[in-house]
Specification:
single chain
Length: 134
């Protein structure tokens, strides 16, 4: 049996210890993940209509209505009769929170009005309709 000989490092050679470097990278990664702000999206692509007076804002809840008149809240489809229940629960959790209705340009106006009425009946006073600037 032959044994391998351990090579002796030349005198004056410096060994680089990678452990503190990896620890520091993980700490930075955790810091940026915790401190990053995430934008809340509705989960469905909506072609918003153009409005000259459109302004940007950060809503507390987004209700989307796609071109097929399907209502989306938190990435789930919801029947128009269930919007009021969801809004009452939302209003109980955050009484000062606002709601933005992001309706597709091809969505029926009647569905948008039903969602708007359900929000107001639930007590949400800050209700807006999303549009994009020209």
């Amino acid at each position: 049996m032959t044994r391998r000989r351990k090579r002796a490092s030349p005198p004056g050679a410096v060994e680089l210890n990678m452990t503190p470097l990896i620890d520091m990278i993980f700490i930075l990664l955790i810091f940026f993940m915790v401190s990053a702000s995430f934008v809340r999206e509705s989960g469905v692509d909506v072609e918003r209509p153009v409005a000259k007076t459109a302004s940007s804002r950060t809503p507390a809840a987004i209700v989307s209505i796609d071109s097929a008149n399907v209502i989306w809240i938190d990435g789930r489809t919801i029947d128009v009769r269930s919007v009021g229940t969801w809004m009452r629960r939302f209003h109980a959790d955050s009484p000062e929170g606002g709601v933005v209705i992001a309706a597709d340009a091809m969505a029926r106006t009647g569905v948008v009005i039903q969602v708007l009425d359900a929000c107001r009946e639930a007590g949400v006073r800050d209700v807006s309709v999303a549009a994009r600037a020209p």
